[in-house]
Structures are given as structure tokens and as C-alpha cells.
Amino acid sequence: MTAQSSNNSVQSGQSPGTESLNQVAQSQLDSLPTGVIEQYWNSLQQQYGGYLPDAQSGNIIRSILENGGWNLHGLIHGILRYFFSEVFDNIRLLGAILLLSVLAVILQSLQSAFEQQTVSQIAYAVIFFVLIGLAIGSFTEAVGYAKHAIQSMTDFMLATVPLVVTLMAASGAVTSAAFFQPMLVFAVHLISNVIFLFVFPMIFFAAILDLVSSLSPRYQVTRLAGFFRTAGVATLGLCLSAFLGVASVQGLGKGVADGVTLRLAKFSVNTFVPIVGKAMSDAAETVVSASMLVKNAVGVAGLLIVLCLALFPALKILALSMIYNGSAALMQPLGDGPMVKTLGSLSKTLVLVFACVAAVALMFFMAICILLLSANIAVVMS
After folding, report:
1. Which of 21, 183, 258, 318 is the most buried (most CB within 10 A)?
2. Is Protein biosynthesis there in the keyword field (predicted)?
3. Which of 323, 329, 321 is nearest to 350 (CA)?
4. Residues 203-222, buried b or exposed e (16+ Cβ, 10 A)?
């Protein structure tokens, strides 16, 4: 029986030790509550399934554990197809903006042909307000995409962090697990609240003030709009720097401490437990290594889901920004009037909204990477 098992292992290209490790990892994965991760993945497949490469099995974590994850070329191709499809979907908006802008420029240039200029001014104002209505509608839609993306990432992190931290503790990184569990939950709540309650209102007020400045040449509040915009960006940058600084320095330090503790425990068992000490140490090392494999698979699945939760709404926002920026560029030869300035300022504001989503995704992405790296350092040092 043993010889037959060894022959099967050789034929499959795996050593018996590797097969045993994979079996322990699969057993651990089967006992884990990964339903939340699969639920988010299935939701992404329903929304963007045509642009995502299919997992080779129905379970994304099992697919990563067995096959190593996705085809990167297929993922990049799907992302590009989605972005250009969003740009083409907004061509109608571009046409409406260009038509209204051309009409406004024609009315503005033919004001002297009217006996009473108030007629042309009223017509120009009506067209301008229609254009502003379109702009505010699409801007509100973009902010809605951003809020939904950040809220989805926040909920996913709050659901995933306890699972990853539990696997960290199972792989021997007890000190790191005790540090990351409260720190990450607090940081995720704090960052999402700061963005929703401060950064987004600052960006929204800046956009409104830019529109007001374009309506009245006499009353300009562009500097106040710039102040609000700078305050929002500075707050976002401060949150990003503080979070990544504390998580990386403290997290890697805890990982080194866990590595020393594991090494000492392994040496103590081998030295002071007679006869069975080496066998106990090897069995514990197998369990720890299997936990590390499962933890890495769960972590990589978390990275991919965070990336997808942020990427597709961010591409929608970026496509809208390109539409407004392209409209301003096409209209500038007809005159650098208030409409062109309005379109340009809205494009810049949408880029800031895109930056908020990208910054939050980067924070959460790096948080998961630091979690994985901290636990892996502990296992490698042992």
C-alpha cells in the first residue's frame, strides 16, 4: 500500500510531504467560514463577469490554492475592454455637451445682431443652465459610484480581517494577530468616516463654488474652491501616510518578534521533549505551513476582490472625467469662455473623486499585503 502511494506521488510530480501539506491545507480550507469572500466574488462575477477571467473552480480561494490564481493577460484585457466600453457609453453625453456648447458660443457671438441683447443673454443663460444640470447630474452619479465602491471595500475589509487574523494566529504569528485585529478595524472605520464626512463634502463644495464662479464674472470664489479642494486632498494624503506608516513599521516589527518566538518554541520542543520531540515539532511545522498556504490564498483572494471593487467604479469615474476634459479641449478653439472653464473644473474635480477611490483601495491593498508579509516573516524566521 505504501509503495503504491509512493508511486502515485511520483507520477503526480509531488513528494509525499507536499501531498500531505496540500491535504492539510485543503482540510483547513474546508473548515473555514469563507462564505463572505465567496459572496463578494459571486457578486462581482454577476456585475462584471464578462470582463473578469473565470476561476478554474467555482471557489476563488480554492482556485488560487490549487492553480495560483488568474491569467494576468486576461485580466488586463478585460479591464481595457471595460474602460473603453464606458467611454463609448458616454459618447451621447459628449455629443449633448458639444451641441449645447456650440449653441452657446453662436448665441454669444451673435448678440450684436439682436436689437435687444437681453434676448440672446436669456437664451445663453438657459443653455448654460441646461449644461450645468447635465454636469451636476453626472458629477452626482460619479460621487455615488465612489461612495458605493468605498463602502463595499470597507464592508469587505471588516468581514475579511478577522478571518485572515485567525489564520495568522494559526500559523504562529500570535503577536501580529493581536496587534492587527483592533488596529485594522479601527483604521478602516476611521478612514471611511473621514472620507464620507470630510473629504467628499470638501470636493463637492469646491465643485459648487467653481460653478458659481463661472456664472458670475463679478463674484469669484475660485480661491475658496481651491482651498476646499486642497483641504480634502491633504486630509486624504495624511490618512494614507499615517495608516501605511504605522501598519508597516509596527506590523513588520511584530512579525520579527513572532519569528523569534516560533524559533525558540521549536528549539525547546526538539531539545527538551525526549523521543517524540522531533516528531511533534515536524507535525506542528506541517500544520503551520498549511495554515500559511491557506492564509496566503485567502489574502490573495482578498487582494483581487479589493482591486475589483475599486477598479470598475474608478474606471467609470475616469471615463466621465475624460468626457468632460475632451469636451473642454474641443470647445476651447471656439472661445475660452465660462462653459469651457466649467467643463475643465468639473474634469479636475472628477479626477479628485477618482483619486479618493484609488487611495482607499491602495490603503486596503497594502494593509492585506502587510498582514501577509508579517505572518510570512514569522514563519520564515522560524
Report:
1. 258
2. no
3. 321
4. bbbbbbbbbebbeeeeeebe
